[in-house]
Amino acid sequence: MKSKKTPMRRCAGCMEQKPKTELIRLAGYEGQVSVDLTGRANGRGVYLCPAMECLAKAAKKKAISRRFDFDVTKERMDELMEELLGITNENFSNNIAKEIDEAQASEGEVSKCL
């Protein structure tokens, strides 16, 4: 069987092409910008790496406003930064918790073997 292709998207900040699952989508619809975690929100999408540097670069280059064809205010960009910061911190803590659980599970398997 053929293996499925992974959809690739380009980050608006660093301009690196990455798998769609590694990026966060911003959706622009009717003059409003929102963080789209599902990837299914209405409107045009702009993808960013989950790093604050990429959002800062995209804001500096006005890449988000250009892709949406409407102006995104400085206040809204600050709100998006706070939302993305919360998402990246949450994902980071979830990943650490998973790693700890996996480490404890593997230690338990090793002790059973001894």
What secondary-structure arrangement, pairings included, does this model have?
Layout: E1 8-10, E2 17-19, E3 24-29, E4 32-36, E5 44-48, H1 52-61, H2 63-68, H3 74-113
Antiparallel strand pairs: 1-2, 3-4, 3-5
Helix pairs in contact: 1-3
Q: What's the total number of strands?
A: 5
Total domain units = 1
Helix content: 40-55%
Q: Would you identify the CATH architecture?
A: 2-Layer Sandwich
Radius of gyration: 18 Å
Terminus-to-terminus distance: 41 Å
Number of alpha- plus pi-helical segments:
3
The structure class reads: alpha+beta
Write a brief caption for the model:
This protein is of the alpha+beta class. 49% of the residues lie in helices and 19% in strands.
From the structure above, extract its key features.
single chain, 114 residues, alpha+beta, 3-stranded antiparallel beta sheet, two-stranded antiparallel sheet
Can you tell me about this structure?
It is a single chain. The protein is α+β, with helices and mostly antiparallel strands and 114 residues long. It has a single domain (8-113), classed as 2-Layer Sandwich (Hypothetical Cytosolic Protein, Chain: A). 49% of the residues lie in helices and 19% in strands. The protein contains 3 helices and 5 strands; from the N terminus they run βββββααα. It has helices spanning 52-61, 63-68, 74-113, and strands at residues 8-10, 17-19, 24-29, 32-36, 44-48. The strands form 2 sheets. It has a 3-stranded antiparallel sheet with strand order 4-3-5. Strands 1-2 form a two-stranded antiparallel sheet. A hairpin with a 6-residue loop joins β1 and β2. α1 packs antiparallel against α3. The radius of gyration is 18 Å and the shape is globular. It starts with 7 loop residues before the first strand and ends with a helix.
